[in-house]
Amino acid sequence: MDLTRRNFVKVCGLGLAGAGTVALVGCGGDTEQPADDSAETGGDTGEVANNQKPVIFFNRQPSNSTTGELDMTTLSFNENTYYVGFDATQGGDLQGEMVLNYIKAHAAELDRNGDGIIGYVLAVGDIGHNDSIARTRGTRKALGTAVEKDGNIVSDPVGTNTDGSSDLVVDGKVTADDGKEYIIRELASQEMKNQSGATWDAATAGNALQSWSSSFGDQIDVVVSNNDGMGMSMFNAWSKDNNVPTFGYDANSDAVAAIAEGYAGTISQNPAVQAYLTLRLLRNVFDGVDINTGIATEDDAGNVIAEEDYVYNEDQRSYYAMNLAVTADNYQDFTDATTLYATAQSQLDESASPNKKVWLDIYNAADNFLSSTYQPLLEKYDDLLNLTVEYIGGDGQTEANITNRLGNPSEYDGFAINMVKTDNGASYTSLLA
Ligand code: BGC
Ligand code: CA
Predict the structure, then answer these.
(1) Are 65 and 17 part of one and the same domain?
(2) Would you say the CB of residue 283 lies under 6 angstroms from ligand 1?
(3) Which residues belong to the signal peptide in this entry (predicted)?
(4) Does one domain contain both 12 and 160?
């Protein structure tokens, strides 16, 4: 069955029942079904079965956390299931190149103990999270420290490797801009998971750097982190006072501001595009319009996303925003991470896009990026898109903590899901089936 069609009919019906001719916009003379006005208000969705409602996964892509293989069963749960994230490989590579360029330009002053080795430490977010894996790989690839296994760069943390003996990484070599050769070594890396199991844990990263620096501090020339939450915690715990360049990811406002104080760089994963897409796809399904309305093609209000800022991969049913490097050269343009996308800021007309109710969860209410950047953007976009969103914050540890709070899916018109573990798509879709 073609759900898009169903919703199309439903929205046209709604217009006829409610707001007269105004809402005929987009109905294009479609008269194949009589209107059913029982669905007049958002949330009263008696006629659409839960398993036919739109489901948007975001930030954590349904996939096998060991192999990275996409979970296409979840991603094709129904015709209106999509993933919204960003291009993890392009972003990881960009982060690695940003670090490499910095090392090349500053090698002589970076080598704090003058041993000819540029030593770095790496904070790993979550060993089973594809974004985290891509960033670890991108850093190792650019710095020449990568080891391959079965055609993939090994992304496991090394623990400590101050003597260069680990077989999970190798020593890299770089010719600095001044012509001198240096060795690059991954001195230490660790998954930053706290005792209760929460990953990407900022406090754990700060503590890890404290203990690394007290045992081999003079070898640490560069600090790299899979995200800014952990990066800022490391910067504040040690590297700021010791003038050791620290690189993160996410371009959260506090991290961008810290660039003025020596934080070396971060990557914007284009969160405004992602937050917009997360809610816009739901909106388009509700309205029964082409799924790329207001995305690839301008909507009636003038909203559109430029081609260079995202890609849609049809086989993967996934929209990916493109990443941008943020360094001392351009950080002024990124000071507020919650700024809306330049050409997607216009309010939709209520008659064509009537209010709908959405259930949305964030896997961990304490996640730095999601709570300080992504959710504030979602909250701005829900108004512009006429959506009433119920935000649920998880504990970052167990799926049940979140799924328990989706007691009555029939109350909602659509769902936006951020899983604790990327393997757990079925924990959500089973509630709708
Ligand atoms: C962000 C991290 C965040 C994670 C949560 C990543 O894309 O870069 O900062 O902790 O998503 O899933
Ligand atoms: Ca050194």
Answers:
(1) yes
(2) no
(3) none
(4) no
Say whether 398 sits in a helix, a strand or coil.
coil
**Residue 116 sits in the same domain as residue 14:** no
Q: Are residues 341 and 295 in the same domain?
A: yes
For position 258, which CATH number holds? Answer: 3.40.50.2300
Tokens found for residue 70: 């996409």
Closest ligand, as measured to the CA of 113: 2
Q: Are residues 209 and 354 in the same domain?
A: no
- Is any atom of ligand 1 closer than 6 Å to the C-beta of 320? no
Which of 249, 268, 287 terminates a domain? The answer is 268
pLDDT at 66: 86
User: CB of 57 within 8 A of CB of 425?
Assistant: yes
pTM equals 0.85
Which atom from ligand 1 is nearest to the alpha carbon of 228? Answer: 9
Number of domains comprising the chain? 2
What confidence tens digit (pLDDT) does each residue in 22-68 have?
333 333 333 334 344 444 444 554 589 999 999 999 999 999 988 88
C-alpha distances out from residue 203 to 157, 199, 209, 251, Å: 18, 11, 10, 19
Strand partners, 320: 85, 311
Low-confidence ranges of the chain (pLDDT < 70): 1-46
Question: What does the block give as tokens for 371?
Answer: 């709570």
pLDDT at 80: 98
Residue type at 377 in one-letter notation: L
Does the C-beta of 86 come closer than 6 Å to ligand 1? no
Residues 377 and 368: their CA atoms lie apart, in Å, by 14
Task: Give the pLDDT confidence score for residue 193 in this predicted structure.
Answer: 97
pLDDT (0 to 100) of residue 46: 56
Q: From ligand 2's centre to the CA of 252, what distance in Å?
A: 30
Judgement on whether residues 25 and 121 belong to the same structural domain of the protein: no
Ligand 1 center to 236 CA (angstroms):
20
Same domain? For 133 and 148 the reply is yes
Q: Are residues 256 and 292 in the same domain?
A: no
Structural domain containing residue 307: 2-87+271-432
The backbone torsions φ and ψ at residue 315, rounded to the nearest 5 degrees and listed phi first, read -60, -35
Determine the residue of 369, 374, 397, 424 to mutate for testing ligand 1's pocket, defined as the one with the most ligand atoms within 8 A of the Cβ atom. 369
